[in-house]
């Protein structure tokens, strides 16, 4: 147990005068995918001791909070998002003592730790689920068990309770011969959905959350938390059960209809979140609780994150990272600046008066932004576009999230063979679409995987140019669980650390700017150049302090938008450049010429 008093952490808010906002209003969060961050014992898998050994790097970068993807005991079907024991650490990652040590060492450096928590579902190997397979056990009603469709032999094709498909491929129903019934799983069949309608389930979850908070962690990132409340009728039946309520729902190319409309932002979500807040967080201070919220609208974000409603502190919205997919995740369409800006604008506008925004382009489920929307084809383009997207994101109002390696400009994996992938979503998706439903060609699916597959974010962290990038020892007996990107010889922390022009140094500046400026952390946000198809521009204002952010998000030069030019047109003084993706002098000249170079971004004090 750590004896840690949260009030001794630096009060980041007080430092820039933005009170009475909560401490996280000017914090920057760094996400660690433990499996891929640092291996300490040569088994090819990152672990807790590895993270502890890298804390000085994170403190140097200047982030405030570390979010750890799940490290609980798990069969690792979905890399830990399938938890079989919430109150233990998976031996792959270490022990509870290692976790306590990481907490203590992080706290010493002023870093808070937020744990990922998956309570929409458990692993099928969790004791609750195993008990639930017996109809007479007290846990019988802890999951969504349903009989076969009337008139069908249980376990035979087409006998599933309804035609819902899992997001990870195949039916969303799995037959359990022991119980003689089906259980519902939005994700893999090893991730059965918990039945949040059952108060006993909720009680057990809150008890476990309190156990972790008492142990000294600083909050949670709640996995797909807005999917815990399902739409049921007055008899507790899901749509389509025993009848035709969803018979008319469109069946997708893969032959299933999506449970998403009935599981996302469901009827009791506000009630459950407020109850969780009361039961776990009331009376605690210095924590933060952020929810993953696919399908939540910006307006609903305002409601859930409005402190007056006592639900969650922040949500992750996904509309802005869905702009390059249409219909299916695997049907990709080109990036357009306008689409990104429109989605981000909605998100910013919705929390103008109440609520709060989280800001991210990257996480463990998203490809690397520099490869996805930037240009990673040569060093110059890569560094410039990484900085341009970093600048756009970090100058918004909200709490920014950095995903491990983003601060180095790490790129997609550029895998060319299916065998290189590890992610069940990628492997199931390929099997189902290319081999079973035959709705996508192998070439097109491989191209989609290379562009937006989740493994792109999961290759090992690139610490140095050595054989395994410093992720594991060069003479480690076991290869890393997923291949190291060969470009680690050029893109790595050791190379970038002391380089004043590196992406790493640029991110350090972005973080420091937020800490030191109430205008950046909490100031008002106003869009400019709303019609530009190349430039993303806005101002941030706090009292009489205003900064201008203008970024060319394309690979070709762009005219300075007229409303931006007007703001800068006093013509007497030279613009005061606070940060440029090139260098300040060059950007002063660009502005004078009325033209931004490719990926040129600049923050100007007005
Ligand atoms: C969330 C996680 C993702 C996981 C899924 C199921 O979206 O971020 O990695 O696969 O939930 O738990
Ligand atoms: Ca290890």
Q: Supply the helix-strand structural class.
A: alpha/beta
Strand line-up of the largest beta sheet: 11-10-9-5-2-1-15-14
3D shape:
globular
Radius of gyration: 24 Å
Question: What does the average pLDDT come to?
Answer: 93
Proportion of helical residues: 25-40%
Distance between the termini: 49 Å
Protein architecture, described:
The structure is a single chain. Mean pLDDT is 93; it is low at 1-20. This protein has 19 helices and 22 strands. The longest helix has 17 residues, at 199-215. It has an eight-stranded parallel beta sheet with strand order 11-10-9-5-2-1-15-14, covered by helices on one side. It has 606 residues and is an alpha/beta fold. Bound molecules: alpha-D-glucopyranose and calcium ion. The site of calcium ion has 6 residues, from loops.
Features:
606 residues, alpha/beta, eight-stranded parallel β-sheet, five-stranded antiparallel β-sheet, 19 helices, 29% helix, disordered N terminus, binds alpha-D-glucopyranose, binds calcium ion
């Amino acid at each position: 147990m750590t004896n840690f008093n949260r009030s001794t952490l630096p009060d980041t808010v007080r430092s820039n005068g933005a009170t009475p906002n909560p401490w996280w209003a000017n914090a920057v969060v760094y996400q660690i995918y433990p499996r891929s961050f640092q291996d300490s014992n040569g088994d090819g898998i990152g672990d807790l001791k590895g993270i502890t050994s890298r804390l000085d790097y994170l403190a140097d970068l200047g982030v405030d909070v570390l979010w750890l993807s799940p490290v609980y005991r798990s069969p690792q079907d979905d890399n830990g998002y399938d938890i079989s024991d919430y109150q233990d650490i998976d031996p792959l990652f270490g022990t509870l003592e290692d976790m306590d040590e990481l907490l203590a060492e992080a706290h010493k450096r002023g870093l808070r730790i937020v744990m990922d928590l998956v309570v929409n579902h458990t692993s099928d190997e969790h004791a609750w689920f195993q008990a639930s397979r017996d109809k007479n056990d007290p846990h019988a009603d802890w999951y969504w068990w349903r009989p076969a469709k009337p008139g069908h032999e249980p376990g035979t094709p087409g006998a599933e309770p309804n035609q819902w498909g899992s997001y990870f491929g195949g039916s969303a129903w799995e037959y359990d011969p022991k119980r003689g019934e089906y259980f519902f799983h939005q994700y893999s069949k090893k991730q059965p959905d918990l039945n949040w309608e059952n108060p006993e389930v909720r009680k057990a979850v809150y008890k476990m959350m309190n156990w972790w908070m008492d142990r000294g962690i600083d909050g949670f990132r709640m996995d797909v938390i807005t999917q815990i409340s399902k739409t049921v009728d007055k008899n507790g039946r899901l749509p389509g059960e025993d009848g035709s309520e969803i018979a008319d729902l469109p069946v997708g190319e893969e032959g299933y209809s999506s449970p998403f409309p009935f599981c996302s932002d469901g009827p009791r979500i506000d009630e459950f979140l407020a109850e969780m807040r009361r039961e776990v967080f009331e009376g605690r201070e210095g924590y933060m609780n952020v929810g993953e919220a696919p399908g939540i609208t910006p307006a609903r974000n305002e409601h859930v994150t409005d402190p007056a409603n006592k639900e969650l502190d922040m949500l992750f919205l996904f509309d802005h990272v869905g702009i390059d997919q249409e219909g299916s995740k695997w049907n990709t369409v080109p990036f357009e600046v306008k689409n990104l800006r429109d989605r981000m604008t909605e998100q910013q506008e919705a929390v103008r008066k109440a609520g709060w925004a989280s800001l991210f382009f990257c996480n463990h489920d998203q490809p690397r932004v520099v490869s996805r929307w930037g240009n990673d084809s040569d060093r110059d383009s890569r560094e410039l576009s990484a900085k341009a997207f970093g600048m756009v994101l970090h100058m918004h109002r909200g709490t920014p999230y950095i995903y491990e390696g983003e601060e180095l400009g790490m790129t997609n994996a550029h895998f060319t063979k299916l065998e290189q992938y590890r992610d069940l979503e990628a492997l199931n998706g390929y099997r189902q679409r290319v081999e079973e439903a035959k709705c996508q060609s192998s070439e097109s699916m491989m191209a989609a995987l290379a562009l937006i597959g989740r493994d792109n974010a999961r290759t090992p962290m690139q610490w140095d140019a050595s054989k395994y990038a410093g992720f594991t020892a060069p003479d480690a007996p076991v290869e890393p669980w997923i291949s190291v990107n060969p470009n680690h010889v050029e893109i790595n922390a050791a190379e970038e650390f002391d380089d004043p022009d590196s992406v790493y140094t640029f991110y350090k500046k972005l973080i420091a700017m937020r800490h030191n400026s109430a205008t950046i952390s909490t100031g008002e946000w106003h869009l400019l150049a709303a019609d530009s198809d190349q430039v993303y521009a806005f101002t941030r204002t706090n009292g009489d302090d205003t900064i201008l952010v203008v970024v060319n998000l394309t690979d070709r030069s762009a005219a300075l938008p007229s409303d931006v030019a007007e703001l800068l047109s006093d013509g007497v003084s030279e613009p005061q450049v606070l940060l440029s993706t090139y260098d300040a002098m060059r950007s002063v000249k660009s502005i004078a010429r009325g033209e931004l170079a490719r990926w040129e971004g600049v923050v100007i004090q007005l």
